[in-house]
């Protein structure tokens, strides 16, 4: 099975501050998960369905999409803290 999940660290500079690989993943995603503030940083060229995290927080909505092209937006360094580290566990 090919990779289906990409975790993208997005800063206040939004989409324009992302690298080539992150932009490519977002452009080809079926769904993008993130907080409302992070999702609002994406330009209209990102046509994926935007899904805000549920409250209370749960990773289940992401895990239920295994097999689709999914991006998860996170603030800062997502693999050291937060959602990226949680998904890796």
TrEMBL record:
<dbReference type="GO" id="GO:0032259">
    <property type="term" value="P:methylation"/>
</dbReference>
<keyword id="KW-0808">Transferase</keyword>
<keyword id="KW-0169">Cobalamin biosynthesis</keyword>
<comment type="pathway">
    <text>Cofactor biosynthesis; adenosylcobalamin biosynthesis.</text>
</comment>
<protein>
    <submittedName>
        <fullName>Precorrin-6Y C5,15-methyltransferase</fullName>
    </submittedName>
</protein>
<dbReference type="InterPro" id="IPR014777">
    <property type="entry name" value="4pyrrole_Mease_sub1"/>
</dbReference>
<dbReference type="GO" id="GO:0008168">
    <property type="term" value="F:methyltransferase activity"/>
</dbReference>
<keyword id="KW-0489">Methyltransferase</keyword>
<dbReference type="GO" id="GO:0009236">
    <property type="term" value="P:cobalamin biosynthetic process"/>
</dbReference>
<dbReference type="InterPro" id="IPR035996">
    <property type="entry name" value="4pyrrol_Methylase_sf"/>
</dbReference>
<keyword id="KW-0949">S-adenosyl-L-methionine</keyword>
<dbReference type="InterPro" id="IPR050714">
    <property type="entry name" value="Cobalamin_biosynth_MTase"/>
</dbReference>
């Amino acid at each position: 099975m090919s990779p289906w999940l990409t975790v993208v660290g997005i800063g206040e500079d939004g989409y324009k501050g992302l690298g080539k690989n992150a932009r490519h993943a977002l452009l080809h995603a079926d769904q993008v998960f993130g907080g409302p503030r992070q999702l609002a940083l994406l330009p209209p060229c990102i046509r994926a369905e935007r899904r805000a995290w549920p409250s209370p927080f749960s990773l289940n909505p992401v895990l239920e999409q295994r097999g689709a092209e999914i991006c998860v937006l996170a603030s800062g360094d997502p693999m050291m803290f937060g959602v990226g580290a949680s998904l890796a566990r």
